[in-house]
Amino acid sequence: MSEGQLVQRRKKAEEPVNEKQDEASGDSAQSSDQEDNDKGTRLTLMEQILLLGLKDREGYTSFWNDCISSGLRGCVLVELVLRGRIQLEGGGMRRKNLLNRKVTVKSSEPTGDVILDEALRHMKETNPPETVTSWIEYLSGETWNPLKLRYQLRNVRERLAKNLVEKGVLTTDKQNFLLFEITTHPLSDGNQKTKLIKEVQESVLGKWTNDVHRMDKKMLSLIVLAHASDVLENAFAPLSDQDYEVAMKRVRSLLDLDYDQQAEKKGNDVMWAVFEAFSK
């Protein structure tokens, strides 16, 4: 073999390696950019539920939706458990039904989210501890016990909307309703809501898995709590009739699970207890 042929062969052998290195470098940069973008617009469960429920142009949730308030409080509890702040009492209590077990504070370290930290502070100061169902009622202000009204998280929707304004997802406006004027928050960045809706759709279509424990816990919680908040329909409305039927059938399979049984398998007890509370 001549020296020229050897040089040619050597060049060919080196080309794929260099291409792979360039691709790897490009992927790394793209991943880094993606992480930066995600950090800038990363939404909490509460913000995602509100975004699904908001009318894009009007900038407010349906006046007929009386479920979203308690649904958002359920999101607060799930966010706290996903961040490792709360848990259900364990030991000998594990044989109890999920809804009979008390919520205990695992870590009181601030989360950096004002609403979550406010709820966490209430839980830490409460003795004896309360159940998941009780906390959803207390945080919503839906209790007959006047001593528990101090636990209510006030103006949650307005505070979440302001968070979304700061993240560039919503904007602020005013709208007149006959005798009074209200602050509204119309959609500013349509891409964020479109992306959220597509992720919800894909989780029960293209990325569906029959094993609930292989699902992303936050997405699973979003689906169940969006249904409890009566806003899931907004994510499925753009689907074709066929895809809609498939999506709803799979959502129903999640809603029909034995949550006590699922908690025994993989933990995350508070999350399953919240699901159970809304299934009643």
From TrEMBL:
Q: Which GO terms describe its cellular component?
A: cytosol; Golgi cisterna; Golgi membrane; trans-Golgi network
Q: According to Swiss-Prot or TrEMBL, what is its membrane topology?
A: Peripheral membrane protein
Its domain of life reads Eukaryota
What does the UniProt keyword field contain?
Golgi apparatus, Lipid-binding, Membrane
**What are this entry's molecular-function GO terms?**
phosphatidylinositol-4-phosphate binding
- InterPro entries in the cross-refs: GPP34-like (IPR008628), GPP34-like_sf (IPR038261)
Q: Gene3D superfamilies given for it?
A: yeast vps74-n-term truncation variant domain like (1.10.3630.10)
Q: Where is the composition biased (Basic and acidic residues)?
A: 12-23
| Stretch list, region Disordered | 1-40
Q: Where in the cell is it found?
A: Golgi apparatus membrane
Q: Example GO biological process term?
A: Golgi to plasma membrane protein transport
The entry assigns this protein to a family as follows:
Belongs to the GOLPH3/VPS74 family.
Question: What PANTHER family does UniProt report for this protein, alphabetically?
Answer: GOLGI PHOSPHOPROTEIN 3 HOMOLOG SAURON, TRANS-GOLGI PROTEIN GMX33
Q: What is this protein called?
A: Golgi phosphoprotein 3
Q: What organism is this sequence from?
A: Caenorhabditis remanei
Q: What is the lineage of its organism?
A: Eukaryota, Metazoa, Ecdysozoa, Nematoda, Chromadorea
